[in-house]
Amino acid sequence: MSAKAVKKHKYRIGKMTFLDYVLLVVLSILALMIIIPFLNVIAISLSSQKDYADNPMMLFPKNPTLDAYKALFQDGRILTGFWNTFKILIVGLPLSLFLTSTMAYALSRNKFPGKKFFFFLVLFTMIFNGGIVPLYLVMKALHLTGTLWSVVLVGSFSAFNMILMMNYFQGLPESLMESARLDGAGEWKILLSIVLPLSAPIMATITLFYGVAFWNGWYDAMIFLRKADMLPLQNVLRTIIVESTTNVSNAASVDALNKSGFSTGMKMASVFVSMVPIMCFFPLLQKHFAKGVLTGAIKT
Fold first, then answer.
1. Max Cα-Cα span within the chain
2. Where do the domains of the chain lie, and which CATH numbers do they carry?
3. Nearest to residue 208, comparing CAs of 159, 157, 161, 272?
4. pLDDT-above-70 percentage for the chain
């Protein structure tokens, strides 16, 4: 490339076109649409009933207070909810990754017997669902209702995640597997020593998908669990918020309303409390996330 061409190329990089400005404005608006509601949630959780009544759309609390968080954590159930959710994650996440990666690897191999038939069965579950009643009857027959294992097993496999991982595995060089087989390596050795180390992006992506699903899950726990001391975090937060809202609606005076607590502040505090762990977890996998999704979705 000549010096003149290099100079012209640098000039084009440094100068923004009209389309660049339009994209900048659009992306800035989209960013504000995400950031402003998030700031509003934090501000309301740190505000009093009076400040919220004066300005519901606040972005910064006028008189910050931790009363909503104190009321939320004074109830010992929330710590129990954190512990139950942690147990579901610590068991369900490795199990989900194991089931998904092993099936994805098997279906990604062209020589796997019955590949099309098993892939059809997986794809069939994405289109048709038996419903909650057959699922409950299966869990009841296995004597798993009322235990955390019911929640773990129900969410331990996702056909969508498996297809993403399978497509990623299909994009890996087949010559690596053939070389390992010539050296006497079995399928388990190939999966653990070659395939998984080369699949960090998709593994990080699937880990994030399953982690968020287990963390935000509440419906399965509502169906299968009955004891209050076994409920995960989302169900505990829902119970606390419903009770707080009921107390406020039943308050017959201003004094009773003040004693019942700031229900909207507790709702926002519960939203923030449930988001913080995922917000801390996401940056650890962010660099692999986009690559894993794009590659897993494009490869065939």
1. 82
2. 1-65 (no CATH), 69-300 (1.10.3720.10)
3. 161
4. 83
